Fold this protein.
Amino acid sequence: MQKYNFHPKAASRFASALTSLKTLKNSSLVLSFLKESGFSASQMEKILKSWPELLSVNLENIVKPKIKIFQEFGFSANDIVDIILKEPSVLHSSANKRFIPSLTVLRGLLGSTAEVAKFLKISGWYLKSDLDSSLLPNIKLLHNYGIPMKKINWLMRYFPRFILQNPKTMKKLVEKADRLGADRSSKMFIHAVLIVSSLSNETLELKKKTFRDMGFSEDDILRVFRTQPYVFATSERKIRKIKEVVLATGKYDLSCIVNNPTAVTRSIEKRYKPRFQVLEILEGKNLITNWPGFPTLFKMTDKNFFEKFVRPYSDEVGEVFVAKGGLSGKRQV
């Protein structure tokens, strides 16, 4: 182990796992091959910490064929290292049943080896999955519901596990979103599917009740689900708290939230409270006569709010705004 420059503690731990002379010889062959393939000592340490069994696998039958397949598909040495670092156990997946079929499917979907490499550096476990019985049927289903390939690729990148679920489950989720009123032709349809996948029927009904209590009609709730489904990801507690904070100003009423439902997705501590306190101070000192309209208030970026309501009155409100967390980054007051 010493010749690979492992950290002493790591080397001792790896050595203790070698129970026979045969295993010791095998581990030396595996490590030497990985080193020749571009893996540094620290990278090999990281792999062995998550998958120590690598030291005892057959180099010729298990490890070498996978590296060769990567190379034949056009992956660079750095790409191969990064992918294996992310998911070392892919080396143990079946070459013919998983590895090659998965790489073939992914290149067909993503268009190039470079894009596949980028994807696998995040979701390397796709090489251990049966994409023919999960990913491809789900893609076909989503296509049938009018979801374009561009959106499906987005789904793969940002919700990789979601699109690999059982096709029967996916079908139920898509049908549920459709039944609840999501518009198939809208780019928000897939977001509606994601939302229903994360909420039980009971939780969904609780959210609807919370919206009703705030003055939303059934048509309003349907409109939100169709056009801004991610609003349903906001907890009932936060929705009620935003209602409380907004109404406490005396400047806005419930219709402001009903007409601007995405308002419930904004931060209470970083957006509403700092801005409300600044406006209260400015009004109290007769520096402003009117508060901005509610849509302007909650949609305005930190920079724009700062330039309009803080910088011109920095002596009065600058420290308050910064102290209350109203700036997402440092800015000279």
About this structure: The chain has 19 helices and no strands. The first helix runs from residue 8 to 16.
